[in-house]
What we know:
The protein has about 110 residues and is α+β, with helices and mostly antiparallel strands. It has 2 helices and 7 strands; from the N terminus they run βαββββαββ.
Amino acid sequence: MPPNLAFRYDRLTAGVAEANKAIGAADKMIKAGHFTGAPRITRTVDGVVFVFPKAAAKRATVEIAAATGSQTYVANADGIARVRLDKRLSAQDPEVTFSRKPLYIVPDLQP
Length: 111
């Protein structure tokens, strides 16, 4: 978790890349037969989930200050804000700012 309320977009990109490496390694173990009966993992992560306290639901924001304009994501009623990564933003490496510190930042495993 970042110590303050902002960091660069490349940290999101790096986190998603690490998650995809872990998924790939797990799938290799399944393919090799180490987990009998486990289904192969066919999806990859392409976004992140910011989890804010329920008290901040519908108010907490994540803002990405891109050169082409800011993108603001507002947490839903459960305190969740989902952000899909954008290759164009990866090249720009804009600043990502929170209105308040999230509890967690995790890979988005939903399709």
